[in-house]
Amino acid sequence: MLELLRDHTLQVVAAGAGVLGLTAGALGSFAVLRRQSLLGDALSHAALPGIVLAFLLTGSKAPLTLMLGAAAAGWLGTVAVGAVVRRSRLPYDSALGMLLSVFFGFGLVLLTVLAKRPDAAQAGLKTFLFGQAAALLRRDVATMAVLAAITLLLLLAAWKELKLLACDAPFGESLGLAMGRAEALLRVLLVVAIVIGLQTVGVVLMAAMLVAPAVAARQWTGRLGPMVALAGALGAAGGVAGAVLSSMVPRLPTGPTVVLILSVAVATSLVLAPHRGLLWRWLRQRRTRRAPHLDPLLMHLYALSLQHPDDPEHGHRLGVLRTMSPREVDVPAALEALAARGLAQRVGEGLWAPTWLGRREAEKALQREENADVR
Amino acid sequence: MGAAEGDWAMEVEDLTVAYADEPVLWDVDVKVPVGQRMAIVGPNGAGKSTLIKAILGLVPAVAGEVRVFGRPRGRLGGQIAYVPQRSSLAWDFPTDVEDFVTMGTYGQLGWWRRPGQPQREAARRAVQEVGMQEFLTRPIAELSGGQQQRVLLARALVQKAPILVLDEPFQGVDAPTERAIVALLNQLAGEGKTILAVHHDLQTVAEYFDWVALLNIRLIAAGPVAEVFTEDNLRVTFGGRVGVLAGGRAVTGR
Amino acid sequence: MSAELAMLAVAVVTALACALPGTVLVLRRLALVSDAISHAILPGIVLAFFLTHDLNSPLLLIAAAGTGLLTVVLIETVSRSGLVGEDAAIGLVFSALFSLGVILVSRGAKGVHLDVDAVLLGQLALVPFDELVVAGHAVGPKALWSMGVILLANLALVVVAFKELKLAILDAPHAAMLGFSPAVLHYAVMALTSVTAVGAFQAVGSILVVALMVAPPATAYLVSRRFSAMLVASAAFAVTATLAGAAAAFAADVSIAGAMATAAGVQFALVFLLAPRRGLLWQARRRYRQRLEFAGRMLVVHLAHHEGRAEAAVESRPDALHRHLKWSHPFAQRVIRYAAASRLVHVAGPLLELTAEGRRLAHRLIAEGPPRPRV
Fold first, then answer.
1. Among the three residues C275, C295, C318, which one is the final residue of a domain in this structure?
2. Can you say whether the dihedral through the CA atoms of A281, A287, A290, A293 is positive or negative?
3. Neighbours, chain A (3 or more CB pairs < 8 A)
4. C261 and C302 fall within a common domain
5. Pick the residue with more confidence: B188 or C278?
6. Same domain, C229 and C310
7. Residue C76 is assigned to a structural domain of this protein
8. A129 neighbourhood in chain C, CB within 8 Å
9. Among candidates A254, A213, A219, which has minimal Cα distance to A40?
10. From the list A224, A371, A373, which residue is nearest B95 (CB)?
11. How high is the pLDDT of residue C284?
């Protein structure tokens, strides 16, 4: 395996996938937060005609040229979608769907035009669709890295504006910050990220590169900065892991492998993350549902003890507790059960008080109630 | 307390906003006095939120002029603090209360500059003013309606602007929060700040506000509550389905 | 049947079959789900293909329907967790499934050749040569028959469940109250969408299925007011796009599917811009005329407001209009000319004066109260 890691091609592919994962993860966070996850997908498809036209017009297959073509087509696409949505009743998702498929269809037409030219060595639609990570050159990765660095720098520079854009754009506008320009910047950065990714994972899977790391990261943190950083890290890790795995296993294409690894990461995050994760939610629900008749009794004890703040060991009569509880509850047995759990103590003949632990449990339960009412 | 000519925090003239030829605000003239609490009331669709947004420049106006302290509004820069409608935000955004309120200081920082100690201090003080100091590290997604409203208010307060503009600040909040916000607004007005709020509850207009503007696409009337908040004006504003209870409290039948 | 006629027939039937579920999808804001389904059914088809080795086998249709439903169920489950937005859920699910499909293809049973290009881009050119043979007679391309059956199925659903569809689109809770389950209908539509997508692969491939499902209905959306009208218009636009695209493709010898998608897009653009009453250009003209009329009313009201008062001398000057009403000088001139021509104002030297008629209009506008009282 170590031999493998020293393989030059693998190093290049892994670096490329890593750079892509980092950029897409970071930028994708903003797209996801603004509920524009599929914009990346649409832009990826829409880039095809741009790439082919760039080749048709310039005759050059230099990555930078093709990237410019892709970027131009992507940009044109966002403008078109924006115009259609603003000036007609058509919903946003239909506009995106049209952008994606119509532009792509036009790209196909151009490809068939290309195929008839004598000088055409058609790069192959498959490359565009699925990426051809294995064909990445050091030069390509270097270009990608430079673009990624510029993108991340711009992201940092406009951090405040982008954060406001994603959280509450009208408020940002009311502060005097130019939200329109921030939005335009985000679109440009997104297009650049897509252009970086087309070579590596191809059109269809670009959406996942933008969305999966961000969704996974969101489950683990409640602040934007850490989320973006984590998304970038997850994206990069997924990219590298996918590249390594696909070189170890025969006939395993890089792009889809990366996406599957990231999907597993998302699923894991959704289940295991603390606070938000499904597993935690389930456990918490079980805890509150456990021993339903014990908790109210503890709460009664706690309520009574509040009346004697200076005397926490003040004993309360069994009879009083009996009156406070529903008739079917066997209060003495329940009290014994509480004592067994260390939450209550007998302080005298027929006199009970909550322990320090019991008081803390009661307070936590109250807090949980308050939070649960919140939704 | 009457305001003399020239004591206007904001002056709106001939303001007209239209979406695809449908007028949403038409030829609205209204002056907001300094240091008073002013409510904007009207039926649904009367353009109340739009008026606020147009004053702030968030929606384009087809015609009209807005002056702030005598000068044309231009690009906003710390004169007006905005508290939008609670429902207009996506509350599952990853941020906690302290960070959220700190965002209110972003207008004061230029490119590249990050919020530092002074900004966070200011945010913490604003959070304390609205009584949410125990929730500084709570994610905003876990806040109740009333808590959200307080936090929105804190985010506006941190700007220390002389004018505070609120869009339905009491919609869907619990009674203690409503009382707290009213007390806070009174305190701010006492300090000379100007308050302008879209208000949905006719019952409390007289109690919470000094001035009122009655709006239904066009301005029906504006001025001190005692003068303007009359049965006749309300009838015109709400198109007839208004009942006035004893004690001058009005209620709409809807 | 000539080859070209066969291709055309298949294309038209495919477009019609897509337009029907597409209309429902666009109205229910599920346009991108069609994109997701068309990508995500790949693993289902691949698995079925491994079993039957036949791209035209009906088993593929069943597998497609199943995978399509699975996709929809997964998307809904993920987004219902509350942890992931719906748009992100779509992106995640289809990417994961598609990646799985691609990997299955790559690693698939040796000796089995599944041409991914065919699945993604269709092979309309081969369709005429794959005929259905019944009792020794060739009765036409298989694709025509399968697509025809699908079209009939879609038609049947639309006709039989027309009222229910309409209700479900407009008002799901109300529909549930009336005793039928919008959920059943929803899944039926999704299943048919998946089946249609697979059937359409042969003609146009999966990516362009989206074009056929979204673009003609979107175009219809621009000009229809009623569901029934929109269905008919979708079908009509689908046919015209197909014919135009096919004609262009035959003439220029380019990808037919791509040309169809492009034609559908161009058609949308044309309707968007030029349609009478709804089209952009029309609206711009009407808006301009109305703007003048609107401005004229503002002018008389403005003059009436300040008439007879101290500031009249200032406010009635044409340059006051520029300041107060935010009219550029040229526009102000145009309004004045319009108002003068309509005999509402009268230019008295440097000032504007209301004519008697203008004053009447102004007072009427003012007295009328709100232009549209809302209660």
1. C275
2. negative
3. B, C
4. no
5. B188
6. no
7. yes
8. 120
9. A213
10. A224
11. 74
My answer on whether C230 and C301 are in the same domain is no
pLDDT for A375 equals: 40
Q: Which residue of A has its CA nearest to C258?
A: A105
The residue in chain A having the minimum alpha-carbon distance to the alpha carbon of residue C86 is A35
Say whether both C239 and C314 belong to one domain: no
Chain A nearest-CA residue for B107: A175
Shortest Cα–Cα distance, B193 to chain A (Å): 18
Q: What CATH number does the domain containing C328 carry? A: 1.10.10.10
pLDDT(A290) > 80: no
Domain range enclosing C235: 3-275
Assess B84–A contact: CB distance below 8 Å, yes or no: yes
Q: What is the pTM of this model?
A: 0.78
> Does residue C199 sit in the same domain as residue C242?
yes
ipTM score over 0.90, yes or no: no
Q: Are residues C71 and C36 in the same domain?
A: yes
DSSP 3-state assignment of A62? coil
Whether residue C198 is found in the same domain as residue C125: yes
Q: How many domains does chain C have?
A: 2
Cβ atoms A12, A143 nearer than 8 A: no
Residue C169 sits in the same domain as residue C308: no
Optimal mutation site among A45, A90, A92, A94, interface C, most CBs of chain C within 10 A: A94
DSSP for chain B, written as a single string: ----TT-EEEEEEEEEEEETTEEEEEEEEEEEETT-EEEEE--TTSSHHHHHHHHHTSS--SEEEEEETTEE--S--SSEEEE--GGGS-TTSS-BHHHHHHGGGGGGS-TTPPP-HHHHHHHHHHHHHTT-GGGTTSBGGG--HHHHHHHHHHHHHTT--SEEEEESTTTT--HHHHHHHHHHHHHHHHTT-EEEEE---GGGHHHH-SEEEEEESEEEEEEEHHHH--HHHHHHHHTT-EEE-TTS-EEE--
Question: Which DSSP symbol is given to A304?
Answer: H
